[in-house]
Amino acid sequence: MGILSWIIVGLISGWLASMVIGDRQSLLRSLLVGLIGAVIGGFLFHSLLGFSYAHGLSLGSIVVATVGAMILLWLLEWTSRRR
After folding, report:
1. Residue 71 DSSP SS3
2. What is the tens place of the pLDDT at every residue in 5-61?
3. What are the structural domain ranges in the chain?
4. pTM assigned to the model
5. What are the Cα distances from residue 72, in Å, to 7, 18, 34, 37?
6. Is the CB of residue 64 less than 8 Å from the CB of residue 39?
């Protein structure tokens, strides 16, 4: 997947995850959460669950990255509450 596809998927998935979780964030944080979420989601779907998805700019990659970004946002919220 090209760097432009990673950025687009990261932005979309970070924005979608923040809408679902209800966390307002900046564009840069949305991009970072989306990109890290793509790694988390890719690991969960492929390694742990055995599902394969299309790489690149596709609905499957956006869904996988959004699920990973939602998990990341939930973890960040959970750890900030514990402090």
Report:
1. helix
2. 878 888 899 889 988 888 777 888 888 898 898 888 888 888 888 877 666 788 888
3. 3-82
4. 0.83
5. 17, 10, 9, 6
6. no
